[in-house]
Design goal:
This protein is an alpha+beta fold and about 850 residues long. The chain contains 32 helices and 26 strands. The strands form four sheets. Strands 10, 11, 14, 15, 16, 17, 18, 19 and 20 form a nine-stranded mixed β-sheet that branches. An eight-stranded mixed β-sheet has the order 8-26-25-24-9-21-23-22, sandwiched between helices.
Length: about 850
Amino acid sequence: MKDWYQKSGEEVLKELHTKKEGLSSKEAAELLKKGENVLKEGKKKSTLQVFAEQFKDLLVIILIVAATISMLSGNVESTVVIVAVILLNAILGTVQHEKAQKSLESLKSLSSPTAKVIRDGQKIEIDSRNVVPGDILLLEAGDMVVADGRILNNYSLQVNESSLTGESTNVDKEDAVFELDMPLADRTNMVYSGSLVTYGRAVVAVTGTGMNTEIGKIASLMNATKEKKTPLQASMDQFSSRLAFVIMIICGLVFLLSLYRRMPVLDSLMFAVALAVAAIPEALSSIVTIVQAMGTQRMAKENAIIKELKAVESLGCVSVICSDKTGTLTQNKMTVQDIYIDGTTMTPEDLDISSQLHRYLIYDAVLTNDSAIVEGKGIGDPTEYALLEMTGKIKVSHHYLRDLMHRLEELPFDSDRKLMSTKYHLHGVPTVLTKGAVDVLLDRMTHIRTSEGIRELDQKDREEIINQNMKFSENGLRVLGFAYKEVEKDHVLSLNSENGFIFLGLVSMVDPPREESKTAVSDAKRAGIRPVMITGDHKITATAIAKQIGIFEEGDLAVTGAELDGMTDKELDEKITKTSVYARVSPENKIRIVDAWQRRGNIVAMTGDGVNDAPALKKADIGVAMGITGTEVSKDASSMILSDDNFATIIKAVANGRNVYRNIKNAIQFLLSGNTAGILSVLYTSLMALPIPFAPVHLLFINLLTDSLPAIAIGMEPAEHDLLGEKPRDPKEGILTKSFLLKLLMQGALIAACTMTAFHMGLKTGSPAVASTMAFATLTLSRLFHGFNCRSKYSLFKIGFSTNWYSLGAFFAGVVLLHMVMFVPLLSRLFSVAPLSGSQLGMIYGLSFIPTVIIQISKIINNRN
């Protein structure tokens, strides 16, 4: 049986029961029932498997050992509590895993590629998962190939198939028929799912989707992909393991001191193990992941889709944003403003289809154009469908012109030539129509067409065109030049054809700045972030827009790609901080600019939407792709996608990234300062030969209650108003700085002092059980209060209680649970709690509140200075 590449285009269409006009919507819907165009993932772990894996952790194993020791010693209450803690942690871990999987799936759907197909005879854009065999797929530079297909019409198509073949060079495609068996890499009349279109255009009949594609065959042989931990998670794990080592030494010391004081070995061992579990912040890794995941969800709601969790943290360190102009800083709603033709300037409404000169310009605008307008929505390049809207103003249907005249050949636009050329029969004469950058096209023109006819282009004409182009550009307008030439019947369109043109006219378009761009640029500068514009537009045009939104200020430099090529790295390093605008840049220029900033130690975010932006997006610390106009190549290379293509969204994401890191650090401060208080209390009683202040179940209760809910609530703290007023964080700076450690020790010692005061007051009653209960209640309640201290560097009077309802909820939940343990008889026996008098309860409340009062007063004083 012949393979698809061995069949002609007609045979392929016949076998697929389709035609060049595409499937009907009804036919496509029926075929979609057989399966969506997605790869089936490897077998996922069942919920039961995930639950069982929660018991593999070293700390859980220590808890199981503790439960065994407790059971052997006949301490039923401790055994019940420890088992409850183990099960609750396992349930929480399982729920978190399931939520993470759902979040990942939702993020995948948000960033899934789209495809342009012909359905019901019309060009439409659909989600790639809805592509079916028999669809007529339209490919152009920048697209990701979403299904296997046979090429029907080829227009200089080049595809990178490295994902399948491992060959990094681009493959030139053709629509030939091969009779012999050929390896996949040599089937040049086929395109395969997962490959990237790097040049040209093609019409393709879809032959295979989902698991029936070549990449699907590979996927079926693969095992489930192992998830990698983010750098922040890895560093947190390392930090936790080191902390665990230190705490184990302390616990070993406590165990030896207990033996020295002639405590039973079993009781000493039980206490040391429980102390170890209580002191280690085992929830830290989970909290980091939860806070980051919540950050990604918050950003997704604000139109920033984060593809990698590590990008959340890195965003907080960004100090330079290299942004494209079109669509990011501007509205990306190109509208034709003025037209220069026949030596005069006119509006689109002044065009006259009955004038042959005007008609040829209209032909050029519509036919040298790959965009479409379907149901009022532009599909394709905004500049191109602005030209279609221009013709619509004089009631000329671009559908009618395209149906009337069929494209014979084409040379697609690329960033090196800055031109696009097509070949048509106009009024029976083979004609090459061209549009592109004025400065490039002007060098290739020899004649000019006016209302009086065609004549040679003289120096005066050139100067007039250059001056008019300058006037348009100085007003921030984008200008395209239009030209044509008649050729022989046997002329084959090639790069050499793009010479000897007849000038038709200039079309100027405006893409006004977004209303929020000026504010966003101001916010970026206030945050210590340097905004830089990098664009393919004319230097004067780019500078005009940059001035309007505040990127370009007095004394700044604007540099072209050509000027940049003439600079040495040393010269670039000297000018990099003064240069705000880069115009007419190449892909190599973009990489060089990013590299120059990174050499200075800056964390660089880079925006882009085209194929040529992909290398720079990969090079940048944070690659930001455009979700609307961005090609699949740029999205694949990026770590963040803007679903609204808006520069202001990047600034929001940076603020969110800073807030995520700040919340993680505050949660760590809360966890470690509370644990420090518990350790200092136990060490104090051991060294002073006093009774043990906490029963093992007390420590387990404190660990379960005070380490999780309040820490997660701190991670939900909203961004402070002055977050963008701070300088970007140094990514090399660790979390445990000297000032941070000193703060932990002081806060922990303060809580420990109040806890031990309560303990001594309890000892005066002559009952160690009362003393232990008072110490337990004071430590628990003071740590719950301490959750408010760790919300912010500012006092509660400044940030307010109601700005974080999660924090209030966690506090009241903790208070209720503590009082249930103290006053419900069954729970009191279970947690070894002794009855307390009203005055003793008053002492607990007062002492628990003292650390928070002192810390809040110190914050008020520090923030005044």
